[in-house]
Amino acid sequence: MEFKYIIYEKSEGIATLTLNRPEALNAFNKEVVEEVLQALEDIKADENIRVAILTGTGEKAFSAGADIKAMKGMNALKARELSLMGEKLCNALENLEKPVIAAINGYALGGGLEVAMACDIRIASETARMGQTEINIGLIPGWGGTQRLPRLIGKTKAKELIFTGRIIDAKTAEQLGIVNMVVPTDKLKEAVREFALEIASKAPVAIKVAKSLIDKGSEISLDAAIALEREGFGVVASTEDLQEGVSAFIEKRKPTFKGK
Ligand code: CO8
Prior knowledge:
single chain; alpha/beta; 2-enoyl-CoA Hydratase, Chain A, domain 1; Lyase 2-enoyl-coa Hydratase, Chain  A, domain 2; 2 domains; six-stranded mixed beta sheet; four-stranded mixed beta sheet; 10 helices; 10 strands; 47% helix; 16% strand; globular; binds octanoyl-coenzyme A
């Protein structure tokens, strides 16, 4: 697949999407979003891909958010279009039935952080910086940030970050629970690859069902969510992979899961 604004690679069951618009710190414009959506469709269709990684080119930025220059003279209709574009992208990441790891290699600001929060796992380099900086240009987070950030870290800290537009370092983001872990900058690629390979070695149907239960279950009552879990458990229990996992345990060997 040929892309202009992203680099799309596949190996060892892992698909890596690298935002590649360094002259604008990997800011999202319409073309970037369309290319990422296209790559996500390919990941969805490719049975060999078990995990996706989303990152930015270089060490300066994961993404500096939505393209601010494209906002000059923006009217309500255009703003709605821009908001919908980000919503589509975040939903596609969240609804992908495979785990997505955001490898935060630098600035993740505004829409950049919102996109990272729609991923399942976030691993940051120690030089990464994050913030919901929209308030600094007179905006609010419009790609789910007012909703995903408080769900991730609680209302108290979410309001602090959204009201001040403050940029925090990777360690603070880890302490707040925005990122899973922080690694030395020169080790980010390797750490993310190892994490991805670990997930890729697990049973794909179980991962898919667990992802959906965690995301959808937190939006409904505990009773309803537990009922969903019961149904999900039934689905996973009917897979060949469960039998493989049980046999491997009994035979004291490593299981080979097929996603069936
Ligand atoms: N959009 C477009 N271009 C950008 C963006 C951006 N978000 N961020 C940086 N750039 C460009 C700069 O304009 C500059 O280009 P040029 O050389 O042509 O002027 C180039 O990238 C390098 O940037 P800087 O020179 O500014 O680099 P610094 O190291 O000095 O600063 C910062 C780095 C701190 C990251 C700084 O660039 C910055 O503050 N960027 C803006 C970050 C930001 O506020 N992002 C939030 C954007 S709003 C958003 O994402 C809203 C999402 C929801 C939209 C809903 C709409 C309704």
